[in-house]
Automatic annotation (TrEMBL):
Record protein name field: Cell division FtsK/SpoIIIE
Binding site for ATP: 377-384
One of the Pfam families matching this protein, by short name: FtsK_SpoIIIE
Stretches the record annotates as Disordered: 29-55
Signal sequence interval, chain numbering: none
GO molecular function terms attached to this record: ATP binding; DNA binding
Species this protein is from: Streptomyces sviceus (strain ATCC 29083 / DSM 924 / JCM 4929 / NBRC 13980 / NCIMB 11184 / NRRL 5439 / UC 5370)
Domain FtsK, residue spans: 350-554
Keywords of the record: ATP-binding, Cell cycle, Cell division, Coiled coil, Membrane, Nucleotide-binding, Transmembrane, Transmembrane helix
Family annotation (InterPro entries): FtsK_dom, P-loop_NTPase
Any coiled-coil regions, as ranges: 425-456
PROSITE patterns per the UniProt record, alphabetical: FTSK
GO biological process: cell division
Length: 724
C-alpha cells in the first residue's frame, strides 16, 4: 500500500497485499525499465470443438474460470493465517473481558425485563384466567333478566351461567397457582445447577416477552482499532471525511458504501484493506489519499499510522481503488535499523543503494545512477545521516570519485578527507572560492566526458551515456557530488555569486547524469533562498525529514506534494531519520532511513581509501591529505596539528582569530575555550615551528599561521607518501 497519499513509487511492489507473497525488498525503481517485448500470441492448436470459451459455446459463460483468488485474503499465506487467527483470539478475549465486566448490569437488566415480561404475560393471560369467555354470556343474560324480571327461565339461565363462570375462574386460578407453586417448590428443592437452569428457563422467555422495540440487553462493544477493524468503521470514517454521501434520517443500508476487494484483514502489525470508492459519488482514490488526516482522526489513530496508496491499473486497480494499511502504533519508531553498508566490503554504485525501510518493514533501496537527490528538513532530524547513506555506498566502489562540500564544515563530513577528490569545508570566503572552483572543475570534466562519449562508436556507447565498461576502460569513474548545508553557501554569497552557483548546480544536476554524475544535495531551511525552486525541480529524488508545515514540505518535496499526501509535516520530533521520499510525479513513500553514525561512516571512508589505493583511484585532495595519509598508515599526527590543517584546508595562511573560530566550529567541546596563547603553546608542543608570527592576507597584516609550517610538523614519511 503506498503510503500516504502515497502513491506507490514507480515500479515498486508496494506490499499492501503482502499476504499474497513473501515480503521482499522494495526498490524505488526510478529508471523505468522498458517492458519486455510481448510474446507473439499463441495459436491454439486444440480442436476448435473442445474450446470451452468459443463464442458459439452456449456454456462459455458458465464454464469460464473466474479470475479471482480461491482463498480468502486472510488464508493466502502462513503468516497471514497466523496473524488473523491471533487477531481473532485477541478480539474474542477483548469481548470476553468487555462483556464479563458488564455481566452484573446485564443480569439486573434481564431481571427487570423479566418482571416486565411477567406483567405482560399476566395481562395477556388475564382474560383466560378470569374466564372472560363466560363473562359475555353472563352479561347478555343479565341484560335480558333486567328487561324481563318476571321470566324465571331467564333467571335460572343467568344463575347457571354465573355458576359456570365462577367455577371456571376457580379452576383456572387454581391451576395457575398450582403451576407457580410447583415451579417454586421445584426451584427450592432442585440442586443448585438445576435451579439456575430452571430460573434461566423461566426468566429468559419472560425477559424476551418484556423487551421493547429498542431494547438492547448487551452494550454495543466497539473494540479499539488495534483489536478489530471493520468495513463499517471504514465507511463511517470516509463518510465523516465527506468522501461518501451521507443522508440524515436515512437507514444505514440505504447509504453508499465502499466495496472492499480485500479485508480488512490482519497484516503484520496492522490492518490491511483494499477498497473501491462507489461509482456515482464523484470521489476518487486521490481524494481519499488527500484526506489522510481526517480519516485517521475518524479511525481514532494518528495519521502517521495510516498508510494509503492508489492501486494502479498495472496491479489490477482503477482510479477509485485505494490500498490502506492502518498500523497498530507508530510504525517509524522502535529499534534502529543498522545500515547493511556498515558490514559490506564492496558495493557497486550501479546497484540500488540500501536506504531504509517503510512502515511495514519492506526494505527500500534507491538507485542513484542517472539521478540527482535533494535532502531537506528541520535541524537534528537526521537529514545529514540520511544523505550520507547514499554517499557512503559510493565509498565502497573504487570507481566513484567524490566531490564534497559541507557548508557548516563540522564533523559530519570530515572523514571524507580520506577519499574525497575535492573536499570543501565551511562557507567562509576561502571555502566559497573553493566551492566555485570545484564546480568549475566539475563542469569542465562534464564537457570533457560528453566530448569523449560523443566520439565513441555506437557499438561501445549505444545511448551516449556512461556504462560500467566505458567507466573502467576510459577511466571515467562515477562522479558523486555531495553538498550539505547548501543554505550556508547561499546566505554567505553575494546575489550574483549565488545565481552563478545555482546555475552551475542546475547544470550538474540536469546534464551530469548522462556523464556519470550523481548529485546529492542537502539544505536545512525550507525556504526559496535555501532551496531554489529552479534547482529543486530538476532534482529527481527528494527526501524530507520533519518540517513545520505543508508549505515547507512542498518547498523540499515539490509543489502540491502535500496535497497528494507526501507531507513531511506529519512527522514529529521523535522521527529521527524518518522522511518522505519522493521518487516521481506520483510516487512517494515514508521511509525510516538506516542508521549509520559518524564512527561507522569514518570506517567506511577508511575502507574506501584502501579500495581506491588498491585500484589506483585515490586522487585529488585525498591523495595529498597528510592527516588522511597518517590515519591510513596508522601513524598518529597530534590532534591539534590535524585539526588546524583541517581548518586551513583552503588557505595557505590564516589569521589566528579565524583559525580559532574555525577550530571552535570543527569541535566546540575541545576548542570552544581555546585562546591565541594556548593555541601557540599547543602547536609548539606538537612540533610546529613558525617561520613568522605575522601573516599578510589580502593586503592586511595580522597575527596568524602559515599552512606549510603546520605541515612541516607531520612525520616525514607521510609527507613523502603524499608527494610533498
Ligand atoms: N536513521 C536514523 N535512525 C535513528 N536516528 C537517527 C537517524 N538518523 C539520524 N538520527 C539521529 O538524529 C540526529 C541528528 O541527525 P543529523 O545530524 O543527520 O541531523 P540533521 O537534520 O542533518 O541536522 P543539522 O541540519 O543540524 O545538521 C543524529 O545525531 C542521530 O542521533
Amino acid at each position: 500500500m503506498s503510503e500516504p497519499a502515497t502513491d506507490t513509487p514507480v515500479g515498486t511492489v508496494y506490499r499492501l497485499d503482502d499476504h499474497r507473497e513473501g515480503r521482499g525488498a522494495l526498490v524505488v525503481d526510478l529508471a523505468k525499465t522498458p517492458t519486455a517485448p510481448t510474446a507473439a500470441p499463441e495459436v491454439d492448436e486444440s480442436p476448435a470443438g473442445e474450446a470451452v470459451d468459443r463464442p458459439d459455446n452456449p456454456l462459455a459463460d458458465w464454464l469460464a474460470l473466474p479470475d479471482a483468488d480461491v482463498l480468502p485474503a486472510w488464508a493466502r499465506s502462513r503468516a497471514s493465517v497466523v496473524a488473523n487467527v491471533q487477531a481473532f483470539g485477541r478480539l474474542t478475549w477483548w469481548h470476553t473481558r468487555y462483556h464479563g465486566l458488564r455481566t452484573p448490569k446485564y443480569l439486573v437488566k434481564t431481571v427487570l425485563l423479566a418482571a416486565r415480561g411477567f406483567f405482560r404475560a399476566a395481562a395477556g393471560l388475564w382474560p383466560t384466567l378470569s374466564a372472560q369467555d363466560h363473562t359475555a354470556a353472563v352479561k347478555a343474560l343479565r341484560a335480558q333478566v333486567k328487561a324481563k324480571p318476571e321470566d324465571v327461565d331467564l333467571a335460572v339461565r343467568l344463575q347457571m351461567a354465573h355458576y359456570t363462570r365462577t367455577q371456571s375462574r376457580r379452576w383456572r386460578f387454581g391451576a395457575a397457582a398450582a403451576a407457580v407453586t410447583a415451579a417454586a417448590i421445584g426451584i427450592i428443592l432442585a440442586p443448585p445447577l438445576l435451579q439456575v437452569g430452571i430460573a434461566g428457563a423461566v426468566v429468559t422467555p419472560l425477559a424476551y416477552l418484556g423487551r421493547g422495540k429498542e431494547t438492547r440487553l448487551l452494550d454495543q462493544a466497539s473494540p479499539p482499532l488495534r483489536v478489530d477493524m471493520s468495513a463499517q468503521q471504514l465507511n463511517e470514517a470516509l463518510r465523516a471525511a465527506g468522501l461518501l454521501k451521507s443522508g440524515s434520517g436515512k437507514d444505514d443500508s440505504e447509504l453508499p458504501k465502499v466495496s472492499c476487494t480485500m479485508g480488512p484483514v490482519r497484516d503484520g502489525r496492522g490492518w490491511a484493506v483494499i477498497f473501491d470508492m462507489p461509482r456515482g459519488g464523484g470521489k476518487t482514490a486521490s481524494d481519499v489519499l488527500a484526506k489522510r488526516e481526517v480519516i485517521a482522526q475518524e479511525l481514532g489513530v494518528d495519521e502517521i499510522q495510516v498508510i494509503m496508496s492508489r492501486v494502479r491499473a498495472a496491479k489490477g486497480g482503477n482510479a477509485g481503488r485505494v490500498s490502506m494499511w492502518v498500523a497498530d502504533d507508530d510504525p517509524y519508531l522502535g529499534p534502529l535499523n543498522p545500515s547493511p553498508l556498515e558490514k559490506a566490503e564492496k558495493f557497486s554504485i550501479w546497484d540500488a543503494v540500501p536506504f531504509g525501510q517503510d512502515a511495514r518493514g519492506n526494505r527500500v533501496a534507491v538507485p542513484v545512477m542517472w539521478q540527482s537527490m535533494f535532502f531537506g528538513g528541520l535541524p537534528r532530524r537526521g537529514k545529514t545521516f540520511s544523505q550520507r547513506l547514499l554517499t557512503a555506498a559510493g565509498l565502497l566502489d573504487a570507481y566513484v570519485r567524490h566531490y564534497v562540500a559541507d557548508g557548516k564544515g563540522g564533523a559530519d563530513w570530515k572523514a571524507m578527507k580520506a577519499v574525497a577528490h575535492r573536499l570543501v569545508m565551511g562557507a567562509e570566503d576561502d571555502a566559497i572560492e573553493a566551492l566555485k572552483a570545484m564546480l568549475q572543475e566539475l563542469l569542465a570534466e562534464m564537457e570533457r566526458r560528453f566530448a569523449l562519449l560523443r566520439d565513441l562508436p555506437t557499438s561501445v556507447c549505444p545511448e551516449g551515456k556512461l556504462t560500467p565498461e566505458i567507466m573502467v576502460k576510459y577511466n571515467l569513474p562515477v562522479i558523486f557530488v555531495t553538498i550539505d548545508e547548501l543554505q550556508e553557501y547561499f546566505t554567505a554569497m553575494e546575489r550574483e555569486d549565488r545565481e552563478q552557483v545555482i546555475n552551475d548546480l542546475c547544470r550538474v544536476a540536469r546534464r551530469g547524469p548522462a556523464a556519470g554524475f550523481v548529485s546529492n544535495f542537502a539544505s536545512q531551511r525550507p525556504d526559496a533562498e535555501s532551496v531554489p525552486p529552479k534547482l529543486r525541480e530538476i532534482i529527481t529524488i527528494r527526501y524530507s525529514t520533519q518540517v513545520v508545515d505543508r508549505t515547507s514540505s512542498d518547498m523540499v518535496l515539490g509543489k502540491g506534494k502535500a496535497a497528494q499526501g507526501a507531507d513531511a509535516s506529519v512527522l514529529s520530533e521523535d522521527h529521527k531519520g524518518v522522511g518522505v521520499l519522493v521518487t516521481g510525479p506520483a510516487s512517494f513513500v515514508t521511509v525510516r532511513a538506516d542508521y549509520l553514525d559518524g564512527t561507522g561512516f569514518a570506517a567506511l571512508c577508511a575502507r574506501g581509501r584502501a579500495l581506491r589505493e588498491a585500484a589506483g583511484q585515490l586522487t585529488g585532495d585525498a591523495a595529498g591529505d597528510v592527516t588522511a595519509a597518517a590515519d591510513a598508515a596508522g601513524l598518529t599526527v597530534p590532534a591539534i596539528v590535524s585539526d588546524v590543517l583541517e581548518v586551513m584546508r583552503h588557505a595557505p595562511r590564516m589569521f589566528t582569530t579565524d583559525l580559532l573560530a574555525g577550530l571552535a566550529n570543527l569541535d566546540e567541546d575541545t576548542y570552544g575555550d581555546l585562546n591565541a596563547e594556548r593555541l601557540a603553546a599547543d602547536l609548539e608542543a606538537a612540533g610546529v615551528k613558525r617561520t613568522s608570527k605575522q601573516v599578510k592576507i589580502s593586503g592586511a597584516n595580522g597575527a596568524g599561521y602559515q599552512r606549510r609550517d603546520i605541515e612541516a610538523a607531520v612525520p616525514a614519511e607521510i609527507l613523502l607518501s603524499t608527494g610533498r
